[in-house]
What does this fold into?
Amino acid sequence: MDIPKRYDPAVSREKWYQFWLDHNLFHADPKSEKQPFSIVIPPPNVTGKLHIGHALNNSLQDILCRYKWMDGYEVLWMPGTDHAGIATQNVVEKNLAKENLTRHDLGREKLIERIWEWKKEYGDTIIHQLKYLGSSCDWARTRFTMDEGCSRAVREVFVRLYEDGYLYRGNYLVNWCPRCHTTLSDDEVEYTDAKGAFYHIHYPFADGAGHVTVATTRPETMLGDTAVAVHPDDDRYQDLIGKEVILPLMERRIPVIADSYVDREFGTGALKVTPAHDINDFELGKRHNLEQVNIFNDDATINENGGVYQGLDRDECRKRVVADLKTKGLLEKIEEIDHRVGGCYRCNTVTEPYLSLQWFIKMKPLMEEPLKAVRDGRIQFIPKQWENTYFSWVENVRDWPISRQIWWGHRLPVWYCNDCDEITVSRTDPDVCAHCQSVNIRQEEDVLDTWFSSALWPFSTMGWPDKTEELAKFYPTNVLVTAHDIIYFWVARMIMMGLYIMKDIPFEDVYITALVRDSQGRKMSKSLGNAIDPIDVIDTYGVDSVRFTLAILAAQGRNINLAEDRIEGYRNFTNKIWNAARLILAAVEEGETIERDIPPEKLEWADGWILSRLQHAIDAARKGMEAYKFNEASEALYQFIWHEYCDWYLELIKPRLYGEDLVAQAVVKSIAFQALECALRMLHPFVPFITEELWQFLKPLGIPEEDTISIMRARYPDPDPSRIDDSLENEVRKFQQVVYTIRNIRGELNIAPSTVTTVEFKTDNGQEEIFLKQYYPMLTTLCRINKDLIAGADLAPHPAASIGIVDGMEVRVHWPAEVEEKEIERLKKQIEQLNAIVEQRGKKLANPNFTGKAPEKVVEQERQRYEKEKSECEQLTTQLELLTAK
RNA sequence: GGGCGAGUAGCUCAGAUUGGUUAGAGCGCCUGCCUUACAAGCAGGAGGCCGCAGGUUCGAUUCCUGUCUUGCCCACCA
It folds into this structure.
């Protein structure tokens, strides 16, 4: 039976993906009797394009899901996308800019309409790409953080938080662009290094002569100062703490406070405190209950709090303030200083920390359970070290500002009454104020932080707040697969919301993937735009190759710098699998049935050996999968298939496969077939397409699960300990060493492959002679040596042969021609190498510290090795002497 | 500034919770092979003071300390 000479990954990908969809194999049935296994996808941004990080993350999730399907679970992989507030709004606003429009030209409703249109047209890009990758998500359930159900969940949770007293409004400093009149998120502020001036200013004491000198880069903000701060242990300022100083220009009395935040080494060690215009001063001010004096209008001109400076632009104001201080003799000096200035990512205008009213969640009480859940092991991070990252955040959690001054997102279900000023928070849109029944109410303009809806993802996607059968069957989920950089933003908050709303953890395991970095070692991120498109490498090498590469590189808790030649290497591996199958299939006829139960007595050593090795491979693959050690599982399969099954077993069976003996032929076909088929099952989670394609070829030849439509539903193999034969494996290992030895000598001496040489074995061990008799026929095929076995204890030294030693047995390869010089060289080299080892070990054994203190077992082991190596060394030396004496 | 990692072959990376064979893989390199599954292949080979310095130990690439280099997260310096 012939199959195509080349595997075509692109054709295969389309064909089988459609096949799986047509047979509904990704669908999770909540009514199933099977054990549940569930994963919710980390929802990619709708604006997103699949980058290599997604490819890694989703390949691993897919590997887990396919493994669990095969292992008999009912698997739900819940897919969906995130509305990604600011990112998405920005994309659409940029498009508007091309039409010379701003969002203000459109207004809120029209802009949101535009964004929905955009989402409809482009929002599925990443979903298509996930399919391209082979993801086995239950696509019929695909969710979106702003779809109706998720929005209802968001609203319900918000109202509950409010009712339970976890929400409040408070002042908060946001990044403000005075030109765009908009708030900016932290990553929309771009910092640049700049030369600045460092002004040293005298603040006179209120109770008489003298002053304290403060240093600042922003003298104009002093109009809003409400304190001076020093370090509590600073000897220079001990007398000052608790006193008052006069704020120059404003002539206001302000206190001197002590706070360990102040750096004694920096500037003068005395800090002017402007709570309304600096983030640190803001925190400081909160700790000391300082007044927040806002001196700016929203275009960064000075407001009424700035006294005579009202109306001035901030730069103009700075000049005037400095000039006035100089006039009054309060300016001690101006230094140059390097510092960093934050600018608006759009217009580069220097941003201003700006005080505004925001909504907050009180985090401390809500984070108590999440802390316990990880401490007591209900949730565990893999690798475990990431728990530290989690703890460090949870233990020092600050209140979460959840309102955002943009339009795209979940608008807060909060209404303010224009008459009584009370707040109405409601599950349904209210017509009147809940407090005074006035119809004169207005809804909050702000929307919620994107992470708010993400935090509900594990249960909102399953239909909460309704009591659904999905929730009953699949919540909590089994594992979350994500990257470490969102442990704070996302993982911790999901745990919080799960425990608060569902009274149960959202997932048991958190597998933190390594971070795929770009060629310069930089993190790949959505916003940086430096992501490599994995679609390209999929098109070049095939999706299976890309997936296998990612899996085998996915060691725990490390970074991955992806090199393309690696993918090429594993593409060759998929090619190898294909060709191994071709070899088997070429030997069977269409419609032939492969025997499955071969009586043990018909098996030859090679058959028993590969079956034994297969059990180890199954064991390693399973252990790797269960421990999230994808690299170990895939490595074990790679080694088994290429270097055991292909390199050895398929070579060993060729004489029987192509021989006349039909019984022997049937035996090797059966074993080769079964081992291959078993390997395909284990490989399927990693390389689903090629394994499905080959499986479909193999299926009619005798795979027992006749009702199995796809390899996706075939059983994942279990190791069969009765198949393991250690003594046989040891024997074969010895056989392989003999082969290596002969080939090595042939190679080193450049004996042409076509030349048949004579090999003799010197051994005084009866067991070894039996061994040789059994294995010799295969040696002749693999090493091109004479058909007649020459072995015994009384062989005379051979002057025209090279010797290699395997377990004390001399393997003598006779020379076909003049190769003496090369052989002497080779022998010398080997003796030298062996001598070094023997010497080192001898020293170790001569050391009474070692023999006295190391465990008996280790010493004995060392001694045996020493004896063996020493005698081998002597054998070689004898041969060398023989040659050089000639 | 705080925290967490990482430095192993020419390149990209495993290995180390249990210290003890001659430290591995892919790619690259060298030699020889188009042997009827595969040249995307086969056989053989070269290449490593496991960052540096101390310490613990009979023994350290592995454990500890320091140091240099480097990456990431958080806070960003009035």
